[in-house]
Amino acid sequence: MKISLTVNGNSHTIDIVDTDTPLLWVIRDILNLKGTKFGCGKAACGACTLHVEGEAVRSCSYAVKFADGKEITTIEGLGTKANPHPVQRAWIEEVVPQCGYCQPGFMMATAALLKKNPNPTDKDIDVNIINVCRCATYYRMRKAIHRAAELSASPEESENLNA
């Protein structure tokens, strides 16, 4: 079956035998975008988080058939090296990653949160950012989420959030 989707602004039509294949494997193995990670395979850890139509989705349990005709954003499409997204800037400024494996998922979950709630409280963060980090960089991530909210509040940075 042919599935059409737009990933990071680029249109793709893929021929896939099993439309129940998780979107994660289409992104990683067919489209060769390796930033989205496999963690648990059960939608529990969040390493595979990306955006489908602007919503944070755990792609390891999201069948590709549900992505047909939709706009997908991965960590590679969140910002650029020359113009990083406010969340990416905040992650760098706050030196968040330790091993870094889970961080793309955290950044994608954070970007989705900030789009809905531009000034989250610590409680908002606790309720919405439920990804898992084995290195326990949660304190630095919380600081980075607040920093990203500050960066996003500036007029030039808010343009990046809406892109």
Give an account of the 3D structure.
The protein is an alpha+beta fold. It folds into two domains: 2-77, Beta-grasp domain (Ubiquitin-like (UB roll)); 79-162, DNA polymerase, domain 1. 40% of the residues lie in helices and 14% in strands. It has a five-stranded mixed sheet with strand order 2-1-5-3-4. It is globular, with a radius of gyration of 15 Å.
Rounded mean pLDDT is: 94
| CATH-assigned homologous superfamily of the largest domain | [2Fe-2S]-binding domain
What percent of the residues sit in helical stretches (DSSP H or I)? 25-40%
Q: What is the rounded distance between the termini? A: 31 Å
In CATH, the architecture of the largest domain is Orthogonal Bundle
Which structural class is indicated by helix and strand composition? alpha+beta
Strand content: 5-15%
Strand tally is 5
How would you write the strand order of the largest sheet?
2-1-5-3-4
Silhouette: globular
Number of domains: 2
Low-confidence stretches: none
Task: Please count the helical segments.
Answer: 7
Q: Largest beta sheet, briefly?
A: 5 strands, mixed
| CATH classification class of the largest domain | Mainly Alpha
Q: Within the CATH hierarchy, at the fold level, what is the topology of the largest domain?
A: DNA polymerase, domain 1
- Written as H for each helix and E for each strand, in order along the chain, the element string is EEHEEEHHHHHH
